[in-house]
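worker-03 picked up job from queue 'complexes'. Input manifest follows; two sequence lines, order preserved.
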Amino acid sequence: MRKVKLLLSGLLFALLLQAQETFPVNGVADKREGCYAFTNATIVKDAQTTLNNATLVIRDGKIIAIGATGVTIPKDAVVIDCKDKYIYPSFIDIYTDYGIATPTREGAGGRGAGGGFNFNQPSQITSNTKGAYGWNQAIKPETDAYKQFSVDDAKAKTLRESGFGTVLSHVKDGIARGTGTVVTLANQNENLVMLKEKASAHYSFSRGTSTQSYPSSVMGSIALLRQTYLDAAWYKTKPAKEGTNLSLEAFNENQSLPQIFEGDDKWTDLRADRVGKEFGTQYIIKAGGNEYQRMKEIAATKATFILSLNFPQAMDVEDPNDARGVSLADMKHWELAPTNPAAFEKANVPFCLTSADLRDPKQFLTNLRKAIDMGLSETKALEALTKVPASLLGISDKVGSLEAGKLANFLITSGPVFASNTTILHNWVQGDKYAVKEDAWYDIKGTYNLTINTASGPVNYILDVKNATTANVIGKDTLTGRFTYDGKMVKLNFSTTPVRRPGGGAGFGGGGFGGRGGGGAAAAPAGPQFRLSGVANGNSWNGVGEDTVGNKLTWSATFNAAGTASAAGNTTGRLNNTTGRLAKVTYPFDGYGWEEGEAPKQEDLLIKNATVWTNEKDGKLENTDVLLKGGKIAKVGKNLSDANAKVIDATGKHVTAGIIDEHSHIAAASINEGGQSVTSEVRIGDNLNPEDINIYRQLSGGVTSSHILHGSANTIGGQTQLIKLRWGANDEDLKFKNWDPFIKFALGENVKRTTSQNNNRFPDTRMGVEEVLNDAFARAKDYEAAMKADPKGTHRDLELDALVEILNKKRFITCHSYVQSEITAAMLVGDKYGFKFNTFTHILEGYKVADKMKVHGSNASTFADWWYYKVEVTDAIAYNAAIMHKAGLNVCINSDDAEMARRLNQEAGKTVRYGGVSEEEALKMVTLNPAKALHVDDRVGSIKAGKDADVVIWSENPLSIYAKSEKTIVDGIVYWDREKDAEQRKKIAAERFRLIQKMINEKRTGGAGAVRPAEPSFQIILSCGDHEHKDGLYTIDIQEDETVNK
Amino acid sequence: MKKIISIFSLLFLAAGIATAQETVYPAKENKGRFFITNGTVHVGNGTVIENATIEVNNGKIVKVGTDVSASGTIVDAKGKHVYPGLILPSTDLGLKEIANGVRGSNDYTEIGEFNPNVRSITAYNTDSRVIGVLRSNGILLASVTPEGGSVSGSSSVVQLDAWNWEDAAYKMDAGIHVNMPSFINRFGRRGGGNIPPAILAQLGLGGGAGGADPSKAALEKVEEIKSFFRQAKAYLQEPTHKNTNLKFEAVKGLFNKTQKLFVHGDQVKQMLIAIDFAKEFGFDVVIVGGSESFQIADLLKQNNIAVILGQEHALPATEDDDIDQPFKTPAVLQKAGVLFALNDTHDEARYRNLSYNAGTAATYGLTKEQALQAITLNAAKILGVDDKTGSLEAGKDANIVIADGDILDMKSSSISAAFIQGRQVSLDNKQKQLYERYKYKYGIK
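worker-03 finished. Artifact:
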C-alpha cells in the first residue's frame, strides 16, 4: 500500500508542474521544466533504428535531444543512468474508449430491447434523441468524444502498464458513432493531454444503445448506413424541406477524418469494406480476430486493420459430455487465434494493434508475445504500436517515434520489450514519469554480505536474493523468513534457527512483512528472530531492526556477487510454438471445410449408364450417359465417350438436375429486418454467411441452388439472394451470377404480428396489409416521376428504388401468403400498379384461387404437407400442389427449413401420393419449376446440353424415401461425395481428439485460470419466423428474436 | 367381391356427400367375421408373409397365414401391403389444436412443477381435426402425453376412432412423464465469433453467470424429483392417511409396475440419471427423446431402458456430427439390442409422417421390417399394450392398415383401408373434403 501512496504523491506533484497559464494557482507558483537526461541506454527510436549507449534528453514534456553521440546534457537536467536499460517510444492504442463513460440504453425493457426484431414486443418507430438530429437513434455522427472525455487515471494506469502512452478514444455506440479524440495517458488536466480533438470518425453495424426498432439486423444496419451516405450527400444541397439536420451535417463534416469501422468478424469486415467502397471511402477496419481464416479476401480489401489480441482461453473439456458441445471450429480457433497478426504480416496487410476486447487488460503484452511466438515479427509488432497508428491519425509529428521535438512519451524496459522476461520499468508520458515496476530497476538478484550489529557485536550472514520477494539467509544453516524489496525499501524478517515449513524449501516466501500475503502460511519462526527494515541504495543497503526481545539494532548489506542469470538483456528464450502441429485453416473454417489446395475442382465428368430424369421432352431416359465439360452439361445420350473426362459408372443409379430450393433461410447472418413494415432497402446479399454447415448438409440432399429469402416480419421485406451451394466459397462467390433480382413480400398473421399482445405497428389486420402495399407503390410511382423530372433535386431513397425496380420489371416478388383473401387482394394491387406477383410462397390456400393466380401469372411455391400450426393454415391441404399443378400453375415444393431442405426430393414425392402427380412432374417441382419461377431455367433445372453442370447422382428413384445422393455436382464440381464424406468424418474425429488432448494438457499444466468452463458452440439457425423448428441440442433457432446485431 | 364393394362404397358415399369433418363418423363395433386376403402381410415382428390371409372375428385377429381359408365377408388385398396399425408413441395429439396464436385451443402444459396427478386423457379431444389426417396415414393409436414442469402427469394410449375420450381410451394412465433438467451450459458464448455475444445475451444465453455450472443446478433439480418419489414411496407404504396426497397416489402404479416412467431427455447425462431412477426405484423406465442415445446404446441395453426417439427427420446435434447422425441412430440402437420406437413430433406436418421417419431409418441401416417394428410392435411393448396390439398376430385387436404399396415410402404409401378393433374406420378427413371441393371447382378428375 505504501508503494501506491508514493506513486500517487508523485503524480500530484506532476500535475502541479504543468498547470496552465489561465488557471489560478492555489498557493505558491512552482513552475518546473522537468528536464531529464537518460544516459547509457539502448534507445529504439523506431522499429528500424536502434542506438546503443545513447542519451535521451527531455524538457517541458518534449524530447529535446537524442543520440548515441554528441548529445549535450543540460546542466539543469536530472540524470538517470539507464545502463542495461532499453528505451522505446510508448505505444499508441487506436481503439479505446478511455475516459468515456460507457453508453447505456435508456428506458428499454424486455428481451427485444437488445437488438433483434421481436414479434412479441411493441415497436419504437421514431428516435428518442431530443434535438435537431436525424431520424434514427443509431446514427449519431454528432457525437464527439472530445466533448465527453475526462481523464480516468485508474484506466490510464492499466494502459500505461501495458506500454501505451497515447490513445484514440471514441464512444463505442451506434452505427455512425461520431468522432474520436487523441489523448495521452498522462494524469494531467484534460486540456493538456488532448493532442487532437477530432482525429477520426467511427462506424459499426451495431445499433448499440438505440432502442429504436429499426434496424434490427445486419442487413438493416448496412442499408441504414448506405441510406445515410445518400441522405448526407443530398443534405449538402441544402434542401429546404429537411430544415436543420445536425446529424447529417456532422456526418458530412466527419468525412475528412480517418474513417474507422468496427468489423469484429471476417465477414463483417468485408461487408463494411464494400459499403465504404460504394461511397468512395476506405475504412480502417477493427478486426475480430478470425481474419486469418480468410486472409485472401481480407487482403483484397486493401484496408488497414486494427487487431485485438483477445485470444480465446482453453476450455475445460475433460468431461467428454462437455467436450461434445465444443465445435472443432472453436477448438481450432483457440489454437490459431494467436496466429492472426502473423497472418496479416505474411499477407502484407497493414495493421495496428489494440488492447481492446481483452478479458484482462493486463494480458496485452503476454498475448502480444504469444503472437510473436506464432510468427509475428518484432519489427512489425512495434510498428503496429507506434508508426502505423501515428501516421493513420496524423499525429506522427508528436508521437510514434523518439525524435527531438516529439512528446516525451517513452518506455524504459529491462530488456528488449517483446522478450518474454522483460519488464516495463517506467512509462513516461509527456515528460512525467509513471513507474510501472520500480522494484525491477535494479537487478537485485545476487548475494550480499549482511552484517547485523547486535549488542553483543556484529553477526554475519550471506543474503542470497532471488528476486524482489524471495531471498535466503545463509549462516550456519539456510534460514527461514520473509523478504520484500519494492525498489527502495527492504524488509527482512528471519529466525536464526531453521524451522521446517510444510512443503516449503529454504527460500523466503515473499509478500508482506506484516503477515500479509503468501508468507502468512509459514509457521511462526522459533528461536531468536530479527526484524530488519532499511533502504537499498544501489549496492549498499542500510537499516535498523529489532530482535525478539526488543533490542534495537542496525544492519548493513553490501553487494557480493551477481546472480547466475541476468534478468536484463535476454533476447533468447523465445518459445517457439510454431514447431508443434497446428490446426489447418480450412474453407469453411469447420470440420467439413476443405484444406488449402484440397477443395474439389471443376472436372470433365462422364456419367455412364444411368436413368436420367431430363425434365425435358425426352422425359426419363434409361441407360443413358451425361457428359459434363467446363462446368456445363455438354451432351446427353447413349454410349457417349470423351477422352479427357473422368468416367463415373452410374449403372442402376438415377441422375437428375440439382434441386433448387425456392424458399430457404440458410447461409445468412440475418434474415428478418422487422423494424418497419416496408424495408425494401435491405438485401440478404449484403450479409451472406458462406460457412453455414447447412450448405454442406443440403448438398448431401442434392440441393445445388437456394433462394435465400428475407423473413416474414413485415409486408415488404428485403431483397433476396439466389445462391449456389459452392461449399468453401466466399460470400460473393456463393451468389448465383446474373439472375433477375427478387424481393420478399409477406401477408397475413406474421406481418400483422398475431402473436403479439401489444402490437403498435401498422398494419394490425389484413385490411391494413393491403394498404401498406397500396401506399408503398403509390409512393414509388410518385418517386419515379419526381426522379425523372428532377434527378438531382430528388432525394434518393433506397427503399423506393427497389419498388421502382418492381414497377419496371427489373425486380420480382416472392410473396409469403396463406389465405385466399389476402392473395386476391395482393394481386389486385399488382394489377393496379402494373406489376405481377411473380411467386406466391407458402400459398397453402393457393388451391382455392389457382384460377386467379393463373390469370395473374403467378408461380406457386408451397409445402408438401404442412398445416394447422396457426389459424391461417387451418385449410392447408396436402393436395394443394397437385390441384395447383392441375390448374395449370407452375408449382414448386420448397423447404423454408434447414432440415427439410435435405429431403426436398422426398417432399416432392409426396405429391405423387397426395393428388396423383406423375413422378416426372413431381421431380420438376423441386428442380425445373423453381428454376422457372426464379427465371433461371435457361441455365439450371434440367439435364440439357448447354445448361450448368448442376447434377445429382442418386442411389435410386429420387422421389423415394430410400434415395440418397451419392454425388452432388455444382458447376461441374463434385461438392458432395458420399465416399469422401466418410473420410472427412475420420479426419474430424482425429483432429477433435488432438485438440481435446491439448486443452486437457493446458488445464493440467497451465495453472489456475488456464481454462474456462466448456462453452457449447451453439449453431444459430435463422428462419423466417413463421413456425417452429426442431434443430438439435446445440442449436438455437432464432425466429422471433432474429439478429446479428451486437 | 360384392361384399368388398359394399365396404368400400360406404367410404365413397361419405366422401361424396360430406363437406365437413362433422359427417365423418366413428365406425360401429365389429361383430362377426371377415377376412383380409391375398395381401403381403407385414406382421410387425419382423416377419413378412406373402399372399396371406387374416381372419378377424368380433374385432380380434383369429388367424394369420397362407393356410387360412376365407369365406363370407372378404377384403381383397391382392397386390397390397397389410400392416399393423401404426402407433404414435408420445404426442400432444388432441391436446394441442393450433399451437400459435390460439391459446384457447391448447391443453398440453399445466402450471406447476409436480403434476403427476394431471391426466392427459381428460383433455383429449376426439374431434381434433388432426386425427382424421393421421388415420388416413395409417396411424391408429397414440399415446397422448402432457408436457411441462418436472413431472408433467400421466399419458394414456388412445385409439383414433372414437366419439369421446372414454371410448378412445385404450390404456389409461399408462405412463408418468418426467422432464429431465438440462445439463448443457447455456451460458456460453461462441469463441469463434460466429455468434455475436449480443445474440446470446438477448436469448438469455450470453454474458450471464460466467462459469455457472449447469450440472449443479440440474442435479439439484434431479434431487428434488427423486425426493418426490422417495416421499411418495414412503406415503404409499401406509394404506390410509389423515391428509390425502393426490400427487403421491398418482404414482402408485410406478411402484407396482402397472405404470412406466417416461423420462424426457436427449443428453447423455439426462439419460444416465434416468438409468439411476430405474436402479433406485425399480421403475420401468423409458427415455423419450434420446437424440444422444447412440453414444450409450450398450448401457441402455444393459439396464433394460427402452427409448422413444424424437423426430427422426432432424439436424445433427453439433456441426461436427455425421450429417446423417439422427437418421442412423435407430440402427445403432437396433444393433445394441435396445428396445426403441420411432416418433413424429413435427409441429407443422402434424405427425402425419411417422411412417416416413421410419422409412429414413430404413435407408440408414435398419431393415424395412425393423423400421416398421419401431412404429408398431416396439411402440406397443414400450407403452404396455403389446398384449392387445402392435402386430398382426392371433389374439390381438384387429388394428390393421392396408396400403397400396410400401408404407414407409411416401410415393407408394396411399392407405386404402384401416381397421381399429375390427371396425373399418373412415379415411376421410377435412383435407380430403377440401380436395374434393376444389377438384369440383376446377373440374379436375
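worker-03 released lock.
Chain A has 24 helices and 48 strands.
Residues 151 and 189 of chain A are 7 Å apart (CA to CA).
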